[in-house]
């Protein structure tokens, strides 16, 4: 018991010691927990202990079990840990069938698409050069980009044979306009050019232009109002249809006459028999699903449709009559359609055809029958790809369905009805260049736009292509001359613009920009031809309010420097020799003045002098010469310098004006001749011909050479122009240097070279030196009294020279 008691006593003492240590002076943190927290902490400790114990117990049991069977548990564990399921469950890549042809096809399509997109981007970049411009003629494309480096611009033309042919016909057209005679048919002339060249694509372009411009015009309205009128729209639609029908019939004829043996045309002429022979070749075996029998071995509805497609309605009537009783009820509709010149049926008849189509024909398996009913009944919304497989066929059908008179009258209310404007928008904006593969088929896309009277957009598209640019320009000229081209209100507008007040999808084409960009290629080598194109713009106004012909001529002269060839020149007798612009019978004087003004504004003062002289604006000639001469008067006359060139020009003009007279004001002319005298003075001075220089400056009576003359010369100083006064400092310094030079010579030599006022007088060396000093003193006094702020060192240098003469 004592032992146990001592043991508890020791424990008690140790506990008290721990309590004392905890409650002592040490700053130890104490953690206080409530009973709940203590229970939770105990349970967590217990669970960890049991889990570790249970795992060890499981491992021991597993080792005993497997060991009794001869298995080594540690080795098995290592093998299991080294196993990986990654490869077992990895997705297996399917082995695709090798298709080299498909791969190459896809690869080719990819590269073609990439190249096409790049070509379009390049064209957009090039087209941006003809986009919005703040200067009408500020076309940054350098003429060198069109010409080889080896071309001699003075002897060779930058125009190719096609451009020259166009320019020749345009020149003849302008000559007729200048004479006031009846103008030639410009589209016909251009068509004849390419007929001789046997260029079928361009021939078709001009044939299309001939058709679309052969319409009744009302010149009392503006272009947009006329193009929107019922008469013009009806005519445009009719002409477009007629062109497509004519071209298709020519195509059928070419097929038939090229294969007469297979076509079995027979001796009887006529459209009906040609179409019949064409169908025998196209459909030697009639396809299944056709209705209402055959005519001469051809499906009846196919014959009728192709007759309508070729515009041969009389042949369609003949085919319908030959079909017998099966089409007896359809004959009156075709006859009525023929009587209305193939434009449309009467509203009642059209409604009957439309009703029959919707009831029975729509479900027919005969695509030609459905197409025929669509054309006569004006059925919208149904596509017939079996028949309308070409762009021309699609466009022809759409044109057949247009009813501009209903649009005009406001009766076209149904949503499924097609209007001319909606067709234009669909082709230009919805389908556009991508759908028609325009860059690969430019003539096709041009045709689509042009035949739907979207002339401006068609021309702008064609103009983007360098090889077709000349055709676009001349189509635009033809339309402009016929008052069919919509122009922007501002000459600085982009090449193709859209105005919010215009009916969509109307566009406007900047003709002036079109022509100036086109002529930029050859205006340096062929300025006379460029004038022919600029003459087309004579009735248009620039942003400055002058006519564009004059503005373009001005720019042409500034660009080519061909003043004499274009504007003429002044002969020695004072008469003007005519230039290239005189043939246009315009206000030549006004054109020359505009060119002169533009030259002056651009800082080309010497060109402006010659041009003002050509325009007999003598006051401006002398005014500019005075400004230029005043800047070079004191300079040395070096060979090839600006001073020498200006002096020679001024002397030539001065001599002519003295002998033949001039219209300049006396003050301006007086300044001019005075500056020439001062230049002569400095010429003597720089050649060290001091006596001649001193005589010249004294004869001008600008400076006082006696003290008594000072006040008079100071008073006269204010009467001189600024061009003269700015040279007084140099004149004073040069004169003082001459006097000092004479002073030094006199001091060194006993021989006196006397001044003219002392001729025939015996004077001493001292008197002559005193005379020179008196002159220098008068000049110093004059320099200090004149109301002019001279350069800072002028007075100091003058005084210094005077001091050297004391």
From TrEMBL:
Keywords: Membrane, mRNA transport, Nuclear pore complex, Nucleus, Protein transport, Translocation, Transport. One of its GO terms (molecular function) is structural constituent of nuclear pore. GO terms for biological process: poly(A)+ mRNA export from nucleus; protein import into nucleus. It is found in: Nucleus, Nuclear pore complex. It holds the Pfam family Nic96. One of its GO terms (cellular component) is nuclear pore. InterPro entries: Nucleoporin_int_Nup93/Nic96. It comes from the Eukaryota. PANTHER family: NUCLEAR PORE COMPLEX PROTEIN NUP93 (PTHR11225:SF4), NUCLEAR PORE COMPLEX PROTEIN NUP93 NUCLEOPORIN NUP93 DEAD EYE PROTEIN (PTHR11225). Belongs to the nucleoporin interacting component (NIC) family. This is Nuclear pore protein.
């Amino acid at each position: 018991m004592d032992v146990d008691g001592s043991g508890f006593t020791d424990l008690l003492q140790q506990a008290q010691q721990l309590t004392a240590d905890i409650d002592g002076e040490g700053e130890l943190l104490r953690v206080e927990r409530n009973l709940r927290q203590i229970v939770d902490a105990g349970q967590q400790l217990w669970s960890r202990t049991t889990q570790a114990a249970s795992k060890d117990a499981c491992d021991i049991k597993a080792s005993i079990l497997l060991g009794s069977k001869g298995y080594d548990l540690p080795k098995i564990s290592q093998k299991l840990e080294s196993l990986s399921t990654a490869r077992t469950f990895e997705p297996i890549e399917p082995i695709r069938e090798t298709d080299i042809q498909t791969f190459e096809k896809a690869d080719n399509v990819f590269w073609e698409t990439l190249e096409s997109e790049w070509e379009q981007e390049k064209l957009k970049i090039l087209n941006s050069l003809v986009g919005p411009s703040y200067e009408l003629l500020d076309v940054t494309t350098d003429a060198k980009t069109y010409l080889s480096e080896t071309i001699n611009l003075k002897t060779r033309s930058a125009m190719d044979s096609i451009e020259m042919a166009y320019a020749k016909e345009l020149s003849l057209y302008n000559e007729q306009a200048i004479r006031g005679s009846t103008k030639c048919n410009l589209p016909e002339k251009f068509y004849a050019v390419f007929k001789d060249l046997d260029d079928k694509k361009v021939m078709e372009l001009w044939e299309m232009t001939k058709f679309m411009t052969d319409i009744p015009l009302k010149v009392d309205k503006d272009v947009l109002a006329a193009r929107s009128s019922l008469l013009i729209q009806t005519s445009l639609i009719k002409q477009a249809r007629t062109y497509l029908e004519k071209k298709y019939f020519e195509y059928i004829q070419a097929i038939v006459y090229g294969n007469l043996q297979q076509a079995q045309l027979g001796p009887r002429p006529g459209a009906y028999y040609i179409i019949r022979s064409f169908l025998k070749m196209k459909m030697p075996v009639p396809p299944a699903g056709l209705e209402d029998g055959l005519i001469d071995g051809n499906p009846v509805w196919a014959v009728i449709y192709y007759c309508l497609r070729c515009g041969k309605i009389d042949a369609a009537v003949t085919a319908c009559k030959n079909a017998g009783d099966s089409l007896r009820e359809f004959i009156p509709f075709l006859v009525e359609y023929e009587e209305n010149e193939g434009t449309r049926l009467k509203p009642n008849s059209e409604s009957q055809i439309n009703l029959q189509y919707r009831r029975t024909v729509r479900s027919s398996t005969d695509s030609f029958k459905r197409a025929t009913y669509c054309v006569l009944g004006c059925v919208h919304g149904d596509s017939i790809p079996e028949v309308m497989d070409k762009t021309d066929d699609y466009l022809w059908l759409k044109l057949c369905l247009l009813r501009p008179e209903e649009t005009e009258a406001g009766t076209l209310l149904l949503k499924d009805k097609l209007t001319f404007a909606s067709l234009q928008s669909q082709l230009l904006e919805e389908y556009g260049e991508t759908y028609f593969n325009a860059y690969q088929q430019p003539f096709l896309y041009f045709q689509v736009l042009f035949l739907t009277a979207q002339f401006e957009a068609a021309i702008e598209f064609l103009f983007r292509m360098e090889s077709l640019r000349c055709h676009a320009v001349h189509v635009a000229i033809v339309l402009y001359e016929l008052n069919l081209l919509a122009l922007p209100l501002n000459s600085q507008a982009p090449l193709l613009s859209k105005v919010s007040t215009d009916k969509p999808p109307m566009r406007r084409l900047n003709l002036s920009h079109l022509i100036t960009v086109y002529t930029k290629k050859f205006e340096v080598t062929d300025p006379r031809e460029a004038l022919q194109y600029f003459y087309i713009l004579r009735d248009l106004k620039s942003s400055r309010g002058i006519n564009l012909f004059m503005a373009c001529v001005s720019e042409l002269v500034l660009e080519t420097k061909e003043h004499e060839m274009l504007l003429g020149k002044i002969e020695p007798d004072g008469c003007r020799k005519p230039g290239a612009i005189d043939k246009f019978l315009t206000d030549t004087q006004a054109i020359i003045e505009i060119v002169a003004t533009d030259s002056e504004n651009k800082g080309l003062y010497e060109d402006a002098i010659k041009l003002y002289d050509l325009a007999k604006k003598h006051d401006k000639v002398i005014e500019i010469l005075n400004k230029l001469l005043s800047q070079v008067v004191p300079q040395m006359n070096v060979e090839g310098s600006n001073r020498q060139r200006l002096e020679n020009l001024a002397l030539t003009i001065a001599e002519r004006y003295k002998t033949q007279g001039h219209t300049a004001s006396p003050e301006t002319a007086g300044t001019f001749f005075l500056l020439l005298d001062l230049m002569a003075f400095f010429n003597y001075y720089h050649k060290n011909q001091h006596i001649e220089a001193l005589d010249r400056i004294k004869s001008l009576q600008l400076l006082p050479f006696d003290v008594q003359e000072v006040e008079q010369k100071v008073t006269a100083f204010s009467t001189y122009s600024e061009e003269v006064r700015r040279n007084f400092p140099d004149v004073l310094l040069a004169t003082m240097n001459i006097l000092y030079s004479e002073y030094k010579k006199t001091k060194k030599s006993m021989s006196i070279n006397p001044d003219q006022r002392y001729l025939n007088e015996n004077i001493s060396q001292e008197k002559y030196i005193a005379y020179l000093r008196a002159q220098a003193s008068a000049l110093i006094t004059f320099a200090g009294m004149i109301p002019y702020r001279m350069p800072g060192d002028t007075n100091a240098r003058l005084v210094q020279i005077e001091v050297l003469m004391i």
